[in-house]
């Protein structure tokens, strides 16, 4: 008998790749969303689309009835109230998987471990907020709801990705760096290039969600991220190799950047304190990550086929040129 899956979301980035992974593993898939974004599976008769708002309990119940899911992957639970409703409505499925975040961790330590590193607190005001500062607290509160539901017999689990990258990434965070590598022969990298912000290839996040649904323990959280971590400079070099481009990485410190009106934090994917997630717990379920060079090649291929350029994150090439001129005089 074929297993069935309901993906809440399912048309954009993580959700899209999750649907593809489920199809590759012989699931019957139903996606449930508002229909605000183009449905890449509109012509795929293996995927059923149910339209509705996940904050409407009756619509969510209708999606459950239509899909009769064995597993549910929840890609768009952004507030604790979303998770509260979901663990009630899907209390009898074989696996409900909530997408949390590495941002749910409330203390900086290396690495951040499930069940050891404390989570963020979440105030009632944060629970209902939509601002970026409340994102980690909201995700942490969702985790706690999952844990409580499991105590009451619900097969609910949590997956915590770090920064996700790869094909179809509408955030364009990596695209900024890919555009730099593709366009210029000198790329400014903030600091000494050794900072680390753990990243996760989107196809690996998708497979993690399925594997946790199949093999995970109710009430448990699982970190997901590349098994091989690279520094920011190494990431740029990997991108250059994948793009078959020859670039010079130029390090710029706080003083040189400030002279051009820039700061270290103006560069996307720069993080002062390393953000590293322990992924051994997920790997113990049989999950594997894609070799990072392969992941970067796929990211470059998709970037070049898209109209994305990461310009939203651009600190300004004129300012960067000023930095290069300053560094060339030293």
Low-pLDDT sequence parts? none
Assembly form of the protein: single chain
| Outline type | globular
Helix content: 25-40%
* Separate helix tally: 12
Strand-helix topology:
Blueprint: E1 4-8, H1 14-24, E2 28-33, E3 47-51, H2 57-67, E4 71-74, H3 80-89, E5 95-99, H4 124-128, H5 135-151, E6 156-161, E7 163-165, H6 173-183, E8 186-190, E9 199-201, H7 202-215, E10 221-224, H8 232-242, E11 248-252, H9 254-259, H10 280-283, H11 292-305, H12 317-329
Parallel strand pairs: 1-2, 1-4, 2-3, 4-5, 5-6, 6-10, 7-9, 8-11
Helix pairs in contact: 1-7, 3-5, 8-11
Q: How would you describe what is shown here?
A:
It is built from twelve helices and eleven strands. It folds into two domains: 4-165 and 198-224, Rossmann fold, CATH 3.40.50.720; 173-197 and 228-274 and 290-329, UDP-galactose 4-epimerase, domain 1 (Alpha-Beta Complex), CATH 3.90.25.10. Helix 3 links the parallel strand 4 and strand 5 (95-99). The protein starts with a strand and ends with a helix. Strands 3-2-1-4-5-6-10 form a seven-stranded parallel sheet, sandwiched between helices. It has helices at 14-24, 57-67, 80-89, 124-128, 135-151, 173-183, 202-215, 232-242, 254-259, 280-283, 292-305, 317-329, and strands at residues 4-8, 28-33, 47-51, 71-74, 95-99, 156-161, 163-165, 186-190, 199-201, 221-224, 248-252.
């Amino acid at each position: 008998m074929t297993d069935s899956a309901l993906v809440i979301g399912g048309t954009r980035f993580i959700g899209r790749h999750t649907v593809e992974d489920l199809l590759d593993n012989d699931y019957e898939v139903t996606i449930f969303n508002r229909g605000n974004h183009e449905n890449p599976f509109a012509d795929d008769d293996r995927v059923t689309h149910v339209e509705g708002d996940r904050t409407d309990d009756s619509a969510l119940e209708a999606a459950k009835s239509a899909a009769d899911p064995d597993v549910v992957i929840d890609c768009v639970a952004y507030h604790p109230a979303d998770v509260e409703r979901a663990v009630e409505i899907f209390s009898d499925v074989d696996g409900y998987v909530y997408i949390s975040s590495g941002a749910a961790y409330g203390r900086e330590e290396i690495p951040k471990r499930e069940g050891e590193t404390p989570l963020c607190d979440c105030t009632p005001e944060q629970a209902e907020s939509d601002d970026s500062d409340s994102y980690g607290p909201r995700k942490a509160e969702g985790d706690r709801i999952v844990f409580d539901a499991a105590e009451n017999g619900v097969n609910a689990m949590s997956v915590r990705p770090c920064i996700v990258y790869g094909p179809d990434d509408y955030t364009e965070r990596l695209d900024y760096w890919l555009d730099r590598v593709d366009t210029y022969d000198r790329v400014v990298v903030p600091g000494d290039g050794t900072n680390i912000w753990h990243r996760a290839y989107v196809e690996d996040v998708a497979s993690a969600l399925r594997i946790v649904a199949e093999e995970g323990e109710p009430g448990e959280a699982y970190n997901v991220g590349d098994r091989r971590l690279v520094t920011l400079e190494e990431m740029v070099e990997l991108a250059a190799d994948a793009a078959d481009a020859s670039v010079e990485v130029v390090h710029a410190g706080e003083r040189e950047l400030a002279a051009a009106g820039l700061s270290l934090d103006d560069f996307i994917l720069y993080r002062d304190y390393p953000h590293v997630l322990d992924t051994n717990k997920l790997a113990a379920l049989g999950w594997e990550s894609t070799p990072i060079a392969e992941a970067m090649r796929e990211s470059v291929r998709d970037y070049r086929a898209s109209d994305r350029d990461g310009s939203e994150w651009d600190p300004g090439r004129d300012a960067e040129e000023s930095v290069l001129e300053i560094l060339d005089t030293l």
